[in-house]
């Protein structure tokens, strides 16, 4: 960035991508990994990083690294993701990336220079954090850390039948290179991810000002990430004609699915702290005048205690078998991904609190790349206030003042850790 250029604010950086991947039908943004929208955001990131004199490299898992200083062991790394859920908000992912770019500007303005007498700083962008296209969340960070078998990842298929290997190859990432990368990991001395809060913790912690921007605590330090997993139910029945099949002669998998979804809600509501969701269901073939022959539905279960998560899934599975039998159908269950509850590195968490006096510590029910990295490198998170508390929705919100403050908060933390 030339010295004459004004440092960018987070809100101006986000404003420059606010039209990328807008989803007119769903509202919000749909930026699946390796889609035109997400590739456009990757180009935006490269341009903004290079404008700041950062060296941008793509590693063998398709993770982007923008280096300030030499690619050294034990560097300080911050970053997030640019892919989104279908119809997602503007901040989930991009806020952390934009704040990291703007924090580089803040550090430069303070005369801080990474890599010269201090550790190098890298800004990273992880692919497929949402798992919206290939079904497994944090796919890029799982590959980097070896948390997923590389062959399993290569063979994951999207709805159009493209494999992750094919999409990687089409975007300059050799699929044969996918997999654990200890050399890249050795460069991460500490990882800090800034993210929009996906809940009301900061608002509820600060009832006086009701979370109005510029008051109270707009930032929190991450405490722990709830364990969570994804399972896929496949329910098979008898496809048939909607008009010529009497009700008594049906084996309708969608009717079984409806009972399963109600069982999910009841089972989770009966367990304190449990969250269970069926957000995606696929009747096959999916015609208005056709009794489905098969239904696939995906279950997302989360709880602070991994044993409770397992018990909830087991109970739902039992109820699904009863529901299927009631309707003359069969049902199978496959586990797709499972992440244990993760507590962030306590030493780093205390450092973050010391660098952001007054910031509360908040746990989160949302998964993050920082949660995957936490199993192998000291990791931490910062959450920026979200007045609606809503996420994975166009109603996700960050006030402009809080978005711009995110750069300062992150710069304070990075300067303190460099
Ligand atoms: O699903 C999650 O919790 C994250 O947003 N990928
Ligand atoms: Mn996210
Ligand atoms: Mn998300
Ligand atoms: Mn017909």
Automatic annotation (TrEMBL):
The keyword Oxidoreductase does not apply. The keyword Hydrolase applies. Gene3D superfamilies: 3.30.70.360, Zn peptidases. Keywords: Hydrolase. Belongs to the peptidase M20 family. NCBIfam families: hydantase, PRK09290.1-4. This is N-carbamoyl-L-amino-acid hydrolase. The lineage of its organism: Bacteria, Bacillati, Actinomycetota, Actinomycetes, Micrococcales.
